[in-house]
Amino acid sequence: MAKLLAFALIAVSATNVAFASTLRACLDPLPIQGTNFPLTHGIRNGPYVECEYNHAFASPQFCFYNATSLALTHAPNVPPVNDTTIPVDSNAACPTTLPLAGSYRINFPDTSGEFKCVTMSDGSDGAPVTIQDCDFTGPSNQVWSFVGSTIRQGDKCIDVTDGRNIDGVKLQVWTCADGNTNQQFQHSGGAILNQPNDIIHWLAHPDKCMDLTNGDETNGNQIQMWTCFSGNTNQMWVINQP
Ligand SMILES: *[C@@H]1O[C@H](CO)[C@@H](O)[C@H](O)[C@H]1NC(C)=O
Ligand SMILES: *[C@@H]1O[C@H](CO)[C@@H](O)[C@H](O)[C@H]1NC(C)=O
């Protein structure tokens, strides 16, 4: 009975959303009149998402979006946040809606305040999904796509080994297959990137969450599923732009 009640509480308290085309981010880069301006950063700023670009002549440039409606918000109408006046959006080329993000890193905030990255250790079926230092050079085995409820690189999906619904079952990659419930996840973050404490649930068993095994940040530690537990820092991820 206690178990049933706990499950019911999890089910109603988590606002799970499928990964399917839900996450939005600043364009990287922003094309203006044939020139690409690289994104400096995209952050949540109060009720807005702020996208900042390097511009050779008038740097920086900003696009502001309503973090709820995802619509472009022009800065002259934006009130100060914490007494800091938000810079004027002078950029008419901002998309009218915060664009969909195509690829992502799944980060774990380590004890030093840096991020580590969820990594496909290699591209073969059964290869462990691990935590590693983020590597921003060259082709990355840390950049994931969200397709439907799957988290994938090419045709390899994050997969709960043998679909075992037990605490401590490890995550691997496996060839993606439509309808394979071992490969379907949801997360509790909102529709935009950079939500802290994003909880990643197993869709088939939403009381199980992606969990950094023993909270051990050592490179190569294989990620597992564990019963979701509110406040468990081993289960708090941040989904970011690559
Ligand atoms: C405003 O300041 C408070 C207190 O320092 C902080 O917690 C909050 O995140 C700030 N909000 C923004 C949008 O910067
Ligand atoms: C953002 O959009 C929502 C929904 O349309 C609206 O209720 C809210 O007032 C907007 N916020 C700002 C700061 O404009």
From TrEMBL:
Residues 102-240 form the Ricin B lectin domain. Residues 1-20 form the signal peptide. The keyword Cell membrane does not apply. It comes from the Eukaryota. PROSITE patterns: RICIN_B_LECTIN. Keywords: Signal. Pfam families: Ricin_B_lectin (PF00652). The keyword Transport does not apply. InterPro entries: Ricin_B-like_lectins, Ricin_B_lectin. CDD domains: beta-trefoil_Ricin-like. This is Carbohydrate-binding module family 13 protein. The lineage of its organism: Eukaryota, Fungi, Dikarya, Basidiomycota, Agaricomycotina.
